[in-house]
Design a protein that fits this description.
This protein is α+β, with helices and mostly antiparallel strands. The protein is about 20% helix and about 40% strand. The protein starts with a helix and ends with a helix.
């Protein structure tokens, strides 16, 4: 997939236009939302990711999309994703054009996550929140949308069989729900 125009065309045709908000609050899971930030660079489209702080109580040190819990004051998963993205990265909502939603994910740690795909226009400034984020970085969308880079794992963990994807990129280890969301995006946007 090359170019912002093709990405936007496919995203608007193949992603859900609305969040599956009926799932929020209907399970024991804690509602959350993340932004899947797509950024156009001279060399192509990139996805912005964060490295979570080692001090966080859940998912410490992991690579993740900016986002977090949906608060009572958030009017929608989109509002929560934009608020959390601003808090964690400094990217203001005015720089984000939402284009659709991926499937909702429930995690083994009790979260029900709504991923919002959005185009982030240039001109934003990054200001990582040190208590939550140790680094903010970009990975080429072409790498993440290449199924050769989607490694399926099947492991025994805490007495249960677990399956997940990993997408190692240089010294970055993208795995778990973040990799699952990227795989979901690949499945929705690819021609295969």
């Amino acid at each position: 997939m090359h170019g912002l125009e093709l990405f936007l065309q496919r995203a608007k045709q193949r992603l859900r236009p609305h969040a599956d908000e009926r799932l929020i609050g209907t399970t024991a899971a804690k509602p959350a939302a993340v932004l899947v930030p797509v950024i156009e660079r001279a060399e192509g489209l990139n996805i912005l990711l964060t490295q979570r702080s080692d001090e966080l109580p859940t998912h410490a040190g992991q690579v993740a999309f900016p986002g977090g819990k949906i608060d009572a004051g958030d009017v929608s998963p989109l509002a929560a994703a934009l608020r959390e993205t601003h808090e964690e990265t400094g990217i203001e909502g005015q720089f984000v054009e939402p284009v659709g939603y991926l499937d909702t994910f429930e995690t083994g740690t009790g979260f029900c996550i709504v991923p919002v795909v959005g185009i982030v226009s240039n001109g934003f400034e990054l200001t990582p929140e040190p208590g939550e984020v140790t680094d903010i970085f970009e990975v080429p969308l072409a790498f993440l949308m290449d199924p050769k880079n989607h490694i399926h794992k099947d492991v025994m963990w805490k007495g249960k069989q677990r399956q997940f994807y990993e997408m190692p990129y240089g010294d970055r280890y993208i795995w778990g729900v973040t990799a699952a969301m990227l795989r979901n995006m690949y499945e929705k946007l690819s021609d295969g």
